[in-house]
Design brief:
By secondary structure, the protein is mostly helical. The protein is 59% helix and 3% strand. It has a two-stranded parallel sheet with strand order 1-2.
Length: 176
Amino acid sequence: DGHEQNHLRETLTSTSMFEQNIAKKDLDNPFITDTKVRMQEPWEVLETLQNELEFYLPGLSDKGLIVFANKMDLEKDSAGNSMQKKLEEFRRRTSLPVFPISAMRGIEYGAHHPSTGLSEALNLITRNVYATKKARDEANQNSKRNLDDQMDEVYRGRNIAHFTPVDFSTWRAQIK
């Protein structure tokens, strides 16, 4: 319904907020006037996003997910914490692959430049796509073999006295 769509839109919008929270606790946000408000850590935001998306899109957690930790070109966040230590903590707290990236360097040098951090993530995505395709192709091949075996069995059952081995893939091609 409309409420669910609005909530999903808000959840997806918070994805961009998640990117900002990796580098800083967003203390510069003009909409936050109470400095006593504790900003969520990146791993907390990730958990919230995963729960929200799973609630509104059941089965999403079965899909491959990766995390991009942006602003990794900075040494420290706005609170003075080491970005490297924060990244290590983030990786400890999630089972998902976390890739440190720099959108700023991507804008400056281009997305394929090694300093952006995207190459490793793209390699993982490519390997997973090819592995999935290979698994599907093998499953289809096995299914085809099973069908051929079943057709062979039916043929043998009907033609017990006249059995001659048949290559059904050739036979199928001939009848088309």
